[in-house]
Amino acid sequence: MIRFSFRRQGSLWRPTGDDTREDWLGRHGLKKGIYEESLALVKRCKVMMLRNEGLTVTREAEEQMDIFLYGTLPTLGEAKECVELHKRRHKRKLINLKAWPTRKWPMPIIYKYDGAHTTEDVLMIEAAIKHWESETCIRFKRVATNATVTEQHILFTAGSTCSSFVGRVKKSNAFPQQINLMSEYCTQWLGFPVHEIGHAIGFWHEHVRPDRDDYVTVNMSYVYPRFRNNFLKLNKTLVDIDMSVPYDYGSVMHYAATELSIGRLHAIEPKNPLYLKTMGQRVGLSFFDAKLANLAYCKDKCAGVKPHVRCYRGGYRDPNNCRKCKCPEGFGRSQCRRPARANGGCRPTSSSIIYVRSRTEKCLWTRNYNQADGKGAYRHGDKCNWFLKARAGKKIVVRFAGRRFSTYCDYDSPSCFQWVEIKYKKDLALRGPRFCCNPGDIPKFNGKNTLTSESNKMMVIFNAEYPIFKINNYYTHDVPVHYMKGFKLCYKLA
Ligand SMILES: [Zn+2]
């Protein structure tokens, strides 16, 4: 069996290896002189930023620095701006589109391919585009590789990197803005192209938000010196503060704990350790990712559209269908008050409100969990939402039960690619801690057996997306060699 793609990789690429600097410059539409000027400015800026963080910068580390800024390619203007900003020594996530309106794309965003991708790559990139279109009002229009385009557009290239500019980069209209998605590398999970398209739409990385220190600890010494700039906090002026949405561990723009780290140490440690595996997902846009993009691009889509629909739990009117709400994960049914309809064979039902009324434990579990070993397994696409509710003033306590716990795992990453998520915070729009992989035993909560809700409500979500596997000549999500038992979770009044 061959996997659809070879392995997960970081979202960055440096001009080394078999790609010459000239090849690379050409692919990014950069002139040598401009590249060198930008590089010198970026280096200067990075040294200033690192010193502002109290770090010493050796000559060697300085030489190793590359042109990437915050993990993305800066324009010459951005490189200059970076130096200006950090001269004054001060220190969210969407680019400030109000300050730079030209960074916003007109609709539809025209794009084409450079022709170097495989059919599988194109399928995955097309799926990522559909995903953006179904979650937001942003629209794309594909044109043929040899078509002449007079407007500014995106060109998907298949060089040796996963990289993109942030926002629409103002160049001549004929200049295609490149999103580089290395064949088979950057198309393994839907979330990779979704992430890079996100940069082009205007997203920075989540873990560099100006308020990130309240949510994560960044251990700079665990990061390879040449990558440290990808972990530096963004200056507030680079971000649209009005569009504040909460810090989101589950953002597709968040790095995983071990991304670009030395020896797989945790370069990013969540302040609440329960969130370790929520960070770094590359499955798709989170509720808040889509919300932020919709605020920036689709804000007035539903204004004045009747009937007015009220949305609960942080939901908002869906710009693709103003009669409905876009709901936080797990919720749905037009107003976000009830759990979203689910598929699959979770028990006792895949999607329901469960009233928690007593201190006698009851349980829920994945398809076939209770069958004898060798027979039980959940399937690709199983997705379940259980909304646990107790009387006002009461709290709910849960624990993992049964003898085993196992979900499919990508062992290269600490993030969950299939998971049970427990939203136990008061704000049910926020993503919850995720549990996944095969710990051999049943998971604990920071060393404890139980987890208690902050309010009288709790949302439990199960998500089972398998990557696509290639078996002989066909593609499938079924993974015959993987036997995943799933989980059993029991609840009662605290
Ligand atoms: Zn990125």
TrEMBL record:
Cofactor(s) named in the record: Zn(2+)
Keyword Protease: yes
A GO CC term assigned to this protein in UniProt: extracellular region
EC number(s) reported in the record: 3.4.24.-
Transmembrane segments: none
Occurrences of domain Peptidase M12A (ranges): 93-299
Residues that, per the record, bind Zn(2+): 195, 199, 205
GO biological process: molting cycle, collagen and cuticulin-based cuticle; proteolysis
GO molecular function annotations of the record: metalloendopeptidase activity; zinc ion binding
Active site per UniProt: 196
Alphabetical keyword list: Glycoprotein, Hydrolase, Metal-binding, Metalloprotease, Protease, Secreted, Signal, Zinc
Protein name: Metalloendopeptidase
The species this protein was found in: Ridgeia piscesae
